[in-house]
Specification:
Layout lengths: L7 E2 L1 H9 L8 E4 L7 E2 L3 E2 L9 E2 L3 E4 L13 E8 L14 E5 L11 E4 L3 E4 L2 E4 L9 E2 L10 E3 L7 H9 L4 E5 L3 E7 L3 E2 L10 E2 L2 H11 L3 E8 L3 H12 L4 E5 L9 H5 L6 E6 L6 E7 L2 E6 L3 H12 L6
Parallel strand pairs: 1-20, 7-8, 15-18, 15-19, 16-17, 19-22
Antiparallel strand pairs: 2-14, 3-14, 4-13, 5-12, 6-8, 6-9, 7-11, 10-11, 20-21, 21-22
């Protein structure tokens, strides 16, 4: 069989071609714990103020600042301990004039208090709290909406969710978000010479490594790899394996068999007009590749050389992963 060498394409032209193969996936709702790494499909805004109430930013004593204005090291102000604020509960009673209430970091400020005196700045004994310095109004108090106001943007659509995003969404009470799901990527390797790690290579055989390399690259690009095994250098076997993988995949990636050798299976499996086109790209390593549609799913044929496969994936497959 005579192999016709395809025209060499620029990186830009080939990227345009492969991007046209893929379509956005339909958004779905996912529990927050399952959404890490997914792309947010819709803006999420704060449904309440954060924090939602006046709270203490320090372990200390809730006070009325007006009661502390005359405090000096020589003549400390003495305030009566009138209670304690527990975490997760409001104070049972308002703070009376001349009083102080113990309050933990994050505790709800009692009515009548407008400042917090840190515990390390106070002396407390026998139900009396002594302050040697005035505490100005608002000191060590977190106001409602200080972090975010109701209606303010939490995370914009199109952002790939990171750990901090999930924490923020949870803090705002969101249990589920609408995301673009991770695309399932069917992953195959080709080659009669391949033996899985842990096996015993015979003469002329090597350990199969590309699937492990590409597995990590797919995950980093936001996909969910589905390894479908290594297939021999047989065009019928390759076609059957790809069509089987297409049933549960959003796109297909295969490494090896895209060069012009007489036994390379990708070119033999997909002759002109089959929907898959072999190409030569103006890049090194990674010059021979193939792209098209197999059984209704976008297909990317990468070189078998590991470095060439890595370069080809990063340049052309990663940008095409649906998101």
């Amino acid at each position: 069989m005579t192999v016709v060498q395809p025209k060499e394409l620029s990186i830009e032209d080939y990227l345009t071609r492969v991007l046209a193969l893929v379509r956005p996936l339909r958004p779905c709702g996912l529990p927050l714990r399952d959404a890490f790494g997914c792309v947010l499909a819709a803006d999420v805004r704060a449904s309440c103020d954060l924090p939602p109430f006046h709270s203490s930013a320090m372990d200390g004593y809730a006070v009325n600042s007006a009661d502390t204005t005359k405090a000096t090291p020589d003549r400390p102000v003495r305030l009566r301990m009138t209670g304690e604020v527990g975490m997760g509960h409001p104070a049972e009673d308002p703070l009376p004039p001349g009083g102080a209430m113990a309050v933990p970091t994050g505790g709800m400020m009692p009515p009548g208090a407008d400042a917090v005196a840190p515990v390390e700045d106070c002396a407390a004994e026998d139900g009396v709290v002594e302050l040697s310095h005035p505490v100005e109004a608002g000191r060590h108090v977190r106001r409602p909406g200080e972090d975010l106001l109701r209606g303010e943007m939490l995370v914009p659509a199109g952002r790939r969710l990171e750990a901090a995003d999930l924490g923020l969404l949870a803090a705002a009470g969101h249990a589920e978000v609408s995301v673009i799901p991770r695309p399932a990527v069917g992953l195959l390797s080709t080659g009669n010479e391949l033996v899985g790690p842990g096996g015993r290579p015979g003469g002329g055989q090597i350990f199969e490594s590309n699937s492990f390399l590409l597995d990590g690259l797919i995950r980093r690009a936001g996909g969910q790899p589905q390894y479908c095994g290594a297939v021999p250098d047989d065009p019928d076997a390759l076609q059957a394996a790809l069509c089987a993988a297409a049933g549960s995949s959003d796109l297909l990636v295969c490494s090896g068999g895209v060069s012009a050798g007489r036994n390379d299976p990708v070119r033999r499996a997909f002759p002109p007009g089959s929907g898959v086109e072999p190409v030569q790209i103006a890049v090194q390593p990674g010059r021979p590749q193939a792209a098209g549609t197999v059984c209704g799913k976008p297909f990317f044929g990468l070189p078998g050389n590991p470095m060439a496969a890595l370069v080809a994936f990063e340049l052309f497959v990663a940008p095409a992963v649906p998101r």
